[in-house]
# Entry
Amino acid sequence: MRISGAQMVIEALIAEGVETVFGYPGGAIMNVYDEIYKQDKFKHILTRHEQAAVHAAEGYSKASGKVGVAMITSGPGFTNAVTGLADAYMDSIPLVVISGQVPMSLIGTDAFQEIDAVGISRSCTKHNYLVTNASDLPRVLKEAFHIAASGRPGPVHVDIPKDVTAEIAEFDYSIEVDLETYKPNVKGNPRQIKKAMNAIAKAKRPLFYIGGGVINANAGYEVRELVKRTGIPAVETFMARGVLSYDDELLVGMLGMHGSYASNMAMSETDLVIGLGARFDDRVTGKLSEFAKNAGVIHVDIDPASISKLVNADYPIVGDVKNVVKEMLELSSSINSKKYEPWRETVANFAQLHPLVYHEDTDRIKPQWVVERVGELLGDDANISTDVGQHQMWTAQFYPFSRPRQFISSGGLGTMGFGFPAAMGVKAATPDKISINFTGDGSILMNCQELMTAVEQKLPVINIILNNNYLGMVRQWQTLFYDKRHSETDLSVQPDFVLLAEAFGGIGYRVTTKEEFDAALKDAIEKNIVAFIDVVVERLENVMPMVPSGGSLFNMMLLERKEK
Amino acid sequence: MTENSERRVVSVIVVNEASVLSRITDLFSGRGYNITSLTVAPIPDSKYSRLTIVTSGSVRVIEQITKQLHKLIPVLKVYEHADLVEKEMALIKFPIAENISDITAFCKAYNGNIVNVGENVFIAMIADEPKRVDNFLKMIKKYNPKEIVRSGAVALER
Ligand SMILES: Cc1ncc(C[n+]2csc(CCOP(=O)(O)OP(=O)(O)O)c2C)c(N)n1
Ligand SMILES: [Mg+2]
# Structure
């Protein structure tokens, strides 16, 4: 069939089963928007900022497991979207982001709204394309979806000049993607897997180290089984929250900078790290030379470059973690879970010595209480997004996550402004779940324009602002490491968040007591429109425990009990 | 953590397509790897090009370089050479007054010759291992070379 480049974009999206596209139009992408107008196969959600369009696509992808799609115009539309691309790249989120570009004849002339988009996106995408002929579009779009979703997932950027979207060419989407140079290895080497299982059987103090790759690979079920059958304790990274249910007896907790004492001690004492889809990030390992010092390392990852990048792997296994764990399960009868009983006791003792707690020692609501309370009230019924800062860490620490894809947060890039638009995407993907965004008084102002999108599209995200009148996380570092010089982190001057929400047609609550909080949450759920719940919390609370940057995991700063 | 830094030659086979070279150089600059020299040319009768990159780093860094190069979509193969034949070319411009027969004799010892003679200058060419090129260039300093250009290394596994 002979159609225009713009029509090809539409046909390709339909063929890929795309149901929702997030975007923002402009001159260079108008041909495509004209075709969006004419079709009714997928929904387009107009965000109020391109960054939000990409974050919404990320949230959509993370909650649904599908490829997220965003569409933007050239120049400023594209540059606004770059933060989203970088965010998706760091957290391995499969996206296809399509941008308009000035016509081919104007490229390189500093034309109006021209920017070298593929030059900019090269370092923050898995791959990118500048399409110079409409006849290339079917292949490019098909490759884009394939590359985004396969192997280690990531964002793919497709830049299309305006004349290419107008050009008529042959469209055949039945072509097979055959990339000679890109063939991710999904099946782990059976001999290596066997060796790894033998090492586990021999180990005295093995420890599962579960990363976000398990969620990307939809391997949650298999990993839960493996943990159960082997009886080996497990720690999760920030990105892996929800792989094991919060009430799983073998889940020690989250490890890393704000991980639990027990998790970090377990990692320091283990004799065999079993890494599954985790990448030994510096926020996880602390000081590398002291990390799991006496342990052998099994490392299962789809990305060969992640293996032995930071920590040398004794048993490297390149493959899709779901496939590999399935094979491990088949060999798991060789493992006697009773053998690890003394080790499980050691770990339990760590947890008893310094449990993950906070103290209710002031009149103000403690931010951790809010997270716990929402967990009690909503538990599994909610999907939880966050922004970036202290509130994010408290959410990861205190929410009772019970399934993969329940927790959506910006881990690798740490993007303030991620939470609200991501939570809209989450709501669009999983309308039956309540979509909560735990946010801060700093973060929420970076993308609060999305109130308009949420009202228009009926995406009733409940934004719970843990309001400490500070850029709290930075303030915490200033308190601890800069002799309390709180440089430019005091947010005493604030908008009226209730009025702000209401100005857009949402609903706002200001909450200073626990009773008010319960009532506000209940009301927001009933009203079923986008909400801001502005919770006045203890201002100077610190996220504890903490491994200071570059310190060793076993040297944590622990919670001090404040004297009343 | 300072590990021993080694000189290494890496060959990369890539699909000939727009911006593939910048993908590779961006990777080196973005991840803080060194490029000592880089040569690139199409492989005859194929849709591929071959890049020869001379780099340096610890064993771990070199391993990362190879793996990260592999991750780039248009990269077909990466060879990290252990046993290789390596050659580099250099062109040197001398004032016509210098001793052309001495220089010619030296060039011969380095697989080279005089390739151009003009009114005021003549140009010599050599092609040899990069280390020997270094030596040659040191040696001919006394003949007052006006301009020197080196090609960067190309290499083949033995
Ligand atoms: C876009 C962006 N700018 C700056 C930062 C650095 N940063 C990290 S946390 C933080 C403070 C966030 O404040 P708030 O949203 O109020 O959360 P709190 O820590 O108070 O819970 C800042 C400024 C960042 N992560 N992202
Ligand atoms: Mg704050």
Notes: The CA atoms of residues 467 and 536 of chain A lie 5 Å apart.
